[in-house]
Each structure stands twice: as C-alpha cells, then as structure tokens.
Amino acid sequence: MASPRLETYCCPNRDAATQLVMNFQPEVFCGVCIGSASISLLLTILQLLPKKGQSPRKMPKASSSSTILLLISICDILGGLGMIFRSSVWLGFPDFIANISVVNGTDVWPSTFCVGSAMWIQLLYSAGFWWLFCYAVDSYLVVRRSAGLSTIVLYHMMTWGLAVMLCVEGIALLYYPSLSSCENGLEHAIPHYITTYAPLLLVLVANPILFRRTVSAVASLLKGRQGIYTENERRLGTEIQMRFFKIMLVFVICWSSNIINETLLFYLEMQPDINEMPLKNIRSAALITWIIMGVLNPMQGFLFTLAFYGWTGWKVDLKWRKREIPWESMSSSTVGENAYPSPVNYQSNIHDSKKILTTDSQQTDEAISMLSEGNTSSDERLTRSSPIYQGW
C-alpha cells in the first residue's frame, strides 16, 4: 500500500506511532498486500487486453483523454509491482529487513532497499493522482474544444515534474541531515506528509468541481447540436455523469482509509504515551484502517478500469487488429453521397451551410465520444443521433 509511513519506517529512530502499525502482524500485512496487489494486477491487465468477439473501442483519432486513462492504469500496475516486490522481500528475508532498525549499522543495503522501494511506490501513485487531475482538466477542455493530443506533452511535464519534485523534496526534508538522525521531531515529518498527500487532496477537492462543470458543458453541447434535447441525448449525458461519479467513488473508497489512518496516527504521536489504556480504541482503529489500506490501495487499478470501461470480459484476443475510426468512414460516405454538384446556386449554398453544420456537429460528437469512450451503447446512440448518420 502507499503511505508515507513506509519512508518513515526507514528511520532507525522512527516515532512510536509508525512503530505501532509497522510492527503489527507484519507477515499478515505483507501477505494481504501481495494478495491484493497480485489480484488487481492480473485483473487490470485482463481488462486492458482486447477481447474476442468485440469490436475495437471506438475513439477519435486524437484523444488525449484516452491516453491519460491508459497512463493512470500503467501507474497503478507499476505501483502494484512495487508493492509485490517490497512485501516479498519483507517476507522472504526477515533478517535483512531487521537491519533497518540498527542505528549506525555498517550494512547500507537494507536502508537503501527500504528508501528505494518506498519512493517507487509513492512516486507512481502520486503520478497517478496527478494524471487523474489532468483527466478532469482535459475532459473540461475537450468539451470546450480547447484541448487535443498536443496537450498531452504539457500533461506529461506537469505530472512527472510535480510528482518527482514533491517526492524528492519530501524525502530530502525527512532524511535531513542524514538517515540515522531523521524523525527527531515533527518538523521533519510534516513537510513529507504534506508533499505526499497534496495531490491526493487536490483530486478530492478539484476533480468533483471540474467533473460537474464538464457535465454542464456536455448538456449544453447536446442541446445545441440539433436544437432539441431528446431522450438519447439525456441518456448520454447521464451516462457521462455516472462515469465521473464512478471514478470519484473508486478514488474515495481506495484512499479515504489513508486519510483516516494518518489522522489517528498523528493524534497518537501528540500523546505522551500511546500505550495508555484510554487510547486503546484509537490504537485499534489505526491498526484496522492500516490493514484496510493494504487491501484497498492496490485494488485501485482494477476498480478504475471498471469505472473507465466497465467489465470487458474474459475472452482475450491477442491478434493485432487495426482500429477503425468511425468518424473517417462516416465523413467519406457523406462526401460520396453529396459528390454531385447542384446546378442551382441557391441549392449549392444550402449544401455548403449543411456541410458547415455537419462539421461542427462532428466535432461535438468527437468531443463527447472522448468522454464516453469505452461505453458501446453510448457510442451507438451517439452515432444514430448524429446528423452525419442521418444523412442530412
């Protein structure tokens, strides 16, 4: 699981609250992490692979949103691999891990493994948070027709730049001036926790606002496409709204336990003695949420694919197939049907005006299709209700 306590545990003079959770049934906890991460990893890959008997996902030629969704899944997969590796070493080499607690030890490899594995997990999940924020921004910009595939370069710069900068800064402040002298006070730990949870809190606060604005903009687009708001448009808008809701629901389920656990542990850190009897219920709640984190954090990858694409099935098709861009075939068929020029100028002007409206409607359909990508029923309804499909 992803928690700043992993980096804090690398300090030989770690605080009592970190010692409490990290020493609570470590074999069971590592086993839970390995099991949850392995299941999520396999199911996530299964979800992303093409399936037999299903047509390739229809998407616009330039879709930065679909690229972002794939990158979120990749971050979850790599983060899950880091959890599996770290927990496997923890279980398989207990003597090696025990050297982390040795102050002024001569063997630097245990501490190097501890810091490196914790940073790998933290960096990738932090990058996943930034990509999720970029997805919300991009969804809004796509509807406003202010985004495209070229903006993915800016998203890469922002996501990886901020993730690396905050991770390195938090680690540097935590381990200053050296690994053996870190955690001498909260002034070392608090900046590290802030840099870790800043992107998580940003997604919790900003994404619902951006998603709500996007849904409102989609409704305006659907109403303005043909001047009417039919049942098909209403259902499509509702499905896009439900997709955003599922994404935020998965995020809250997977990471709310981290916030609760961190709040409880910080409260325990401020107590003179965390082993006092009045604090028993708080200690129990902290340990319970610690185990819950080990289950839910790795499952984010698979749950996100369900929110993005729905259940795609078990039958995997490993044969390569060229994806069909429906907009190209529709546009070519439309041009073919209207290839003969009109002998009357008035009719030619009508044809030109319809052509402009068709192009505008096509751009609207492409923007909405990016948001409903992966939902076959939505794509079919969108195509049937499109003026391009109707022939104009």
UniProtKB/TrEMBL annotation:
GO terms for biological process: melanosome organization; regulation of calcium-mediated signaling. It is a multi-pass membrane protein. Gene3D superfamilies: Rhodopsin 7-helix transmembrane proteins. It is found in: Apical cell membrane; Lysosome membrane; Melanosome membrane. GO terms for cellular component: apical plasma membrane; lysosomal membrane; melanosome membrane. InterPro entries: GPR143 (IPR001414). Residues 371-392 are annotated as: Disordered. This is G-protein coupled receptor 143. It comes from Certhia brachydactyla. The gene is Gpr143.
